[in-house]
Design a protein that fits this description.
Elements (H helix, E strand, L loop, with lengths): L20 H13 L6 H15 L4 E6 L10 H22 L3 E6 L12 E3 L5 E3 L21 H24 L9 E5 L3 H6 L1 E3 L6 E3 L4 E4 L9 H8 L4 E5 L5 H11 L8 E5 L3 H14 L8 E4 L7 E2 L5 E2 L2 H17 L6 E5 L12 H4 L18 H14 L1
Parallel strand pairs: 1-2, 1-14, 2-5, 5-8, 8-9, 9-10, 10-11, 11-14
Antiparallel strand pairs: 3-4, 6-7, 12-13
Bound molecules: phosphoenolpyruvate and manganese (II) ion.
C-alpha cells in the first residue's frame, strides 16, 4: 500500500498518512463541490455574540465530545446533547444574569491530534493510533486503523445530518423569547478537509470555513509559521487557539496580531489549558506580557486538557478537583487584572459515564472505571458537568 501525506507534511503537524493519494484527491474534489455546511451570516452572528463576551457582557459555554462518533448523528443523540448544552447554559444565565453563548463541540468534531503515532496493544503488537472518525476507527485492528479518505466524505454527511437536527430544534424554539441558537464548533485539524470547504463571502472580500461556525486550532498545531495558523488567518469565522502551559508569550502575542490584525472583538478566542498545577504561575505571566492585547481577546478556560492523568488501573482520567482548581486560577488571574472571564470549554458526555473521578485519592484505585466509553479523552458526566458549571458561575 502506498502511504502518503499530501501537500502539507512539512508545515502541518498531525496530518494522517492516508492509504491512497488518488482516493484523497477524488474525495477532496467531491467536497469542493458540496454545499456549504454553515452560513457565513451565522458565523458573523457568532462573532457579534463573542464580542459581547470579550467585553464581559456575555459568557461562552462550549461543551461536547472529545471525539464525536459518526454513530452519534441521530436525532435522539444530537437532541440529548443539545438539551444538555442549553440546560447548563440556562443554569449559568440564571446564576449570573448574563446571556450565555451556546457552542457545541459537535457536527464536525471528528479528528483528533494524538501524542503518539502508534498504540501498543496488550499482546505487544503495534497499531496506528485512532485519529477520529474522519480518519479511521477505534477498533484495534489494522483494517480499522487505516486512514481512509472516504471517511472525510462521511464526516461531511454526518456533520450535515447533525446540523440539520440542531437547526430544526432551534427553529422549533424560535418565538418571542430570546433566541437560543446552538452554534457548532470543532478543531480545524484536517487541513485538506477544511480547505475543501472554504467558501467565498458573498457580501465582502474574503472567504470563510463553511465546515462549522467556530473553528479552533489545537495546542499541537498552533506553530506560528505552520499551515494551521495560516488557515485560521485566512478565514472570516470566529476562531480559537489553544494555549498550553509552555506557550511563549511572544508567540501568543504574534498569534493575536496575525489572527486578528484589525482587533475585531469576537474574532479571536484564546482557550487556556494549562493544568491546575501550572495555571497560577503561567497564566498571570502570560496576561502581564500581553497587557496591550489581552482586552481584545475572549478568554476561555479549558480545564480538561492540562489535567489528564493515568489512573491506577491505567486509564486516562481527570479529577473534578483539578478541573475546579484550574477554573479558580484562571478566573482569579483575569479578575485581578480587570479582564472579563469569557467562557468555559468542557468535554462532556450526555450519558452517566464514569470517565472522570472526583478527587486525586480516587486516581490510585487499581479497579478500572466501570462506565468508560470515550473513544478518546475522559468526559464529565452530566452531574459532574453541572457541578463544574456551577463552580464557574460562582467565579463570575
Ligand atoms: C481537544 O480539545 O480535544 C484537544 C485535543 O485539545 P488540546 O489541543 O488543547 O490538547
Ligand atoms: Mn480532548
Amino acid at each position: 500500500m502506498t502511504r502518503t501525506r499530501l501537500l502539507l507534511a512539512a508545515r502541518a503537524q498531525q496530518q494522517p498518512e492516508w492509504a491512497s493519494l488518488d482516493d484523497l484527491k477524488r474525495v477532496l474534489r467531491a467536497l469542493e463541490q458540496k454545499p456549504r455546511l454553515v452560513d457565513a451570516s451565522v458565523c458573523a452572528d457568532l462573532t457579534a455574540e463573542l464580542a459581547r463576551a470579550a467585553l464581559g457582557e456575555a459568557f461562552v459555554l462550549q461543551i461536547g465530545e472529545c471525539a464525536e462518533r459518526f454513530e452519534d448523528a441521530t436525532p435522539a443523540t444530537v437532541l440529548a446533547k443539545a438539551e444538555q448544552l442549553h440546560r447548563l447554559a440556562d443554569a449559568l444565565a440564571d446564576a449570573t444574569g448574563m446571556p450565555v453563548v451556546r457552542i457545541g463541540r459537535i457536527a464536525g468534531q471528528y479528528a483528533k491530534p494524538r501524542s503518539s503515532e502508534t498504540e501498543t496493544l496488550a499482546d505487544g503488537s503495534l497499531l496506528p493510533v485512532y485519529r477520529g472518525d474522519a480518519v479511521n476507527s477505534p477498533e484495534p485492528t489494522p483494517q480499522s486503523r487505516t486512514a481512509d479518505p472516504d471517511r472525510l466524505l462521511r464526516a461531511y454527511h454526518h456533520a450535515e445530518a447533525t446540523l440539520s437536527i440542531l437547526f430544526e430544534r432551534d427553529l422549533g424554539l424560535a418565538g418571542p423569547t430570546a433566541p437560543k441558537r446552538t452554534y457548532a464548533s470543532h478543531e480545524a485539524l484536517l487541513l485538506e478537509f477544511e480547505q475543501a470547504l472554504v467558501r467565498p463571502l458573498l457580501d465582502s472580500m474574503g472567504a470563510y470555513g463553511s465546515s462549522g461556525h467556530f473553528l479552533w486550532i489545537g495546542e499541537r498545531t498552533r506553530q506560528l509559521d505552520h499551515e494551521h495558523v495560516a488557515f485560521a488567518a485566512s478565514i472570516a469565522n470566529p476562531v480559537g487557539i489553544k494555549i498550553g502551559p509552555d506557550a511563549d508569550p511572544d508567540d501568543v502575542r504574534a498569534l493575536v496580531h496575525l489572527l486578528n490584525p484589525r482587533r475585531q472583538l469576537g474574532r479571536l478566542s484564546l482557550i487556556v489549558r494549562m493544568g491546575a498545577a501550572r495555571i497560577e504561575r503561567r497564566f498571570p505571566a502570560l496576561l502581564d506580557a500581553l497587557s496591550h492585547e489581552a482586552p481584545g481577546v475572549v478568554w476561555i478556560c479549558d480545564p480538561m486538557h492540562g489535567n489528564t492523568r493515568v489512573s491506577g488501573a491505567g486509564q486516562k482520567t481527570r479529577t473534578v478537583t483539578d478541573i475546579t482548581a484550574e477554573i479558580e486560577g484562571f478566573a482569579s488571574a483575569l479578575r485581578h487584572r480587570g479582564l472579563p472571564i469569557g467562557g468555559l470549554m468542557l468535554e462532556t458526555a450526555h450519558t452517566p459515564v464514569t470517565e472522570c473521578v472526583a478527587t486525586r485519592e480516587e486516581l490510585e484505585s487499581p479497579v478500572p472505571l466501570p462506565g468508560y466509553e470515550s473513544a478518546c479523552d475522559p468526559r464529565l458526566n452530566p452531574e459532574q458537568a453541572k457541578a463544574v458549571v456551577a463552580f464557574m458561575a460562582d467565579q463570575l
